[in-house]
Write a structure and sequence with these properties.
Layout: E1 5-8, H1 12-21, E2 28-31, H2 35-44, E3 60-63, E4 74-77, H3 84-91, E5 100-103, H4 116-123, E6 129-132, H5 137-141, E7 146-152, H6 155-165, E8 170-175, H7 178-200, H8 205-225, H9 236-247, H10 252-261, H11 268-271, H12 276-290, H13 296-305, H14 311-321
Parallel strand pairs: 1-2, 1-4, 2-3, 4-5, 5-6, 7-8
Antiparallel strand pairs: 6-7
Length: about 325
């Protein structure tokens, strides 16, 4: 396929996306921050930081220079939400409005309460593409069966992204709800933390799956109040991602919740681990307050993670409101 494609972010997901697309296009440009990792990818063919045992396809080339992205038709932004605005600043003088930008980040900027798509619209236009689904990067990298959703206000942009991503094992479904797909990606992290807290406290399974059900219902309520479509919550980016992230031991946010449920606090700066859900809790709470929405699940997670209320006390308050 004669398209110039790039992935910004050589982390677990960015590298996996690059590996997938390399089956469909002549070359994939992978933008990395560190020169030593760039050299490893170009000279050894391995992302030594994230996938030291998996050979990258030969048509994946790494760069540290944003100027190399000038001719890209599609750029995937596979970076944490905390680095989004800085990256867009770096891109604004490099690419033009014809470049399709794809966000994979599942977070909200605080205190602006902007989604990643909102930020893209500030710097470029609103015809970006959002990608979200029940997608663990490690499974994508192993070429295991995976499906995801993409959405855009400009349907042809979403179809183009589908074209470059789709393989026999990696399937892509286009939907039309850009607001819903972005919020599903944020809210599933809140639910994952909530269920992790319950697991960390050794709450019985009857109660835990009741909490998961309540979280699913709250997700629909929040998305509808924001102008999104309730049907989106039943998509792969909604129900699928919520269940996977809330129950899998591979989920960072589920693990974060377990640790808080056990009264253990992680030093994220020291560990280098990014928990998108933790960064979004204050933002989601503000969104609910601004739209006069009462979400028992959001309140529960906020109380434990932000207010540092004892998990059992917060759970008892949550359970009292469950019906």
């Amino acid at each position: 396929m004669a398209l110039n494609v790039c992935v910004i972010g050589a982390g677990a997901l960015g590298t996996a996306i690059a590996q997938t697309m390399s089956e469909n296009v002549d070359e994939v440009l992978l933008h990395v921050r560190k020169q030593d990792l760039c050299d490893d990818i170009n000279n050894k063919g391995y992302n030594t930081q994230y996938y030291p045992n998996t050979k990258l396809n030969e048509n994946i080339k790494a760069t540290t220079d944003f100027n190399d992205l000038k001719k890209c038709d599609i750029i995937f932004l596979a970076i944490p939400s905390s680095g989004f605005r800085t990256t867009l600043n770096n891109l604004k003088d490099v690419i033009d409005g014809e470049t399709i930008l794809v966000t994979t980040a599942k977070g909200i900027e605080y205190p602006s309460l902007n989604t990643m798509g909102d930020l893209i619209s500030e710097y470029f236009d609103e015809n970006f593409v959002a990608l979200s689904g029940p997608n663990f990067a490690s499974e994508i990298m192993l070429n295991q069966p995976t499906i995801t959703n993409v959405a855009s206000r400009k349907r042809e942009n979403a179809e183009m992204v589908k074209k470059v991503l789709t393989t026999k094992q990696f399937k892509v479904k286009v939907i039309d709800d850009i607001k819903g797909i972005e919020l599903c990606g944020v809210l599933k992290n809140i639910n994952a933390i909530a269920n992790g807290i319950c697991e960390g406290m050794n709450i019985n399974e009857n109660a835990r799956y009741s909490i998961l059900t309540k979280g699913f219902k709250d997700t629909i309520k929040i998305i509808e109040s924001f102008g999104g479509n309730a049907d989106t919550v039943h998509e792969y980016c909604g129900f699928g991602d919520l269940i996977m992230t809330s129950t899998s031991s591979e989920s960072r946010n589920h693990t974060l919740g377990i640790l808080y449920g056990q009264r253990l606090i992680i030093d994220e700066a020291a560990s280098g681990i990014v928990f998108e859900g933790k960064n979004s809790i204050k933002a989601v709470r503000d969104i609910c307050d601004n739209h006069d929405i009462n979400s028992d699940i959001v309140n529960f997670v906020y109380d434990v993670i932000i207010e540092r209320i004892a998990p059992i006390k917060a759970f008892n308050a949550l359970w009292e409101n469950i019906e």
